[in-house]
Amino acid sequence: MFADVLLALPLGLLLAFTIGPVFFVLLETAITKGFRAAIAFNSGVVLADAIFILIVYFTTSSLLREIKDDPKLFFAGGLIMITYGLISFIKLKKDFKKTIDNKENAYLQVAEKVNYVALFIKGFLLNFINIGVLGFWLGIIIVFGPKLDMNASRIFVFFTSIILVYFGIDIFKILIAKKLKNRLTAFHIYKIKRAISIILLVFGVFLILQAFFPNVLQLTD
């Protein structure tokens, strides 16, 4: 069992520092909404990963290869991500203008109640629409499954260790990002959120390109 945990450690580290839409939104959530909000968001991300792992484990690999390379799924996921990024970008401009018009304090003020359930769902959906994540977990089970003798208990320990490692590292990332919160003005927060919206648009475009050009880099967390 200990050997299986050690085998999972580098993969957990890799996953924690993989640059993708979830990575940026997690940091933005920590900066703008705080620690608990970021944990709620990240819990949704983990649930999506857990579902992908279950799908990978209980479905034949040949079928999963067909699913993960289905261009319609990449196109749909990319379109949803682009739509989300575009709506966020437009809404941000309106909200920031309202902030300026109301002459609010230049420093970030938490005026609205944080909806943790909504953040959990947001994290889940943002990770779940990224079909590249399914491909990542499929590759993991194909490569490491035989090394674990496809033993259910060993596979459970292995995947649980991966998730715990990257979730633990994410907590440190959240704590570091949270320290910036009180040093940012409303304008800085606006710039950060706008950058995140643009990043989501870019990742959405990459997903759509993946539908038409399968050799384009696939996206993970």
From TrEMBL:
Superkingdom to which the source organism belongs: Bacteria
Membrane topology (UniProt): Multi-pass membrane protein
Keyword annotations from UniProtKB, A to Z: Cell membrane, Membrane, Transmembrane, Transmembrane helix
A Gene Ontology term for the protein's cellular component: plasma membrane
Keyword NADP: no
A GO term, aspect molecular function: amino acid transmembrane transporter activity
Location of the protein in the cell: Cell membrane
Transmembrane regions: 6-27, 39-60, 72-90, 124-144, 156-175, 195-213
Protein's name according to its UniProt entry: Lysine exporter protein (LYSE/YGGA)
Species of the source: Capnocytophaga ochracea (strain ATCC 27872 / DSM 7271 / CCUG 9716 / JCM 12966 / NCTC 12371 / SS31 / VPI 2845)
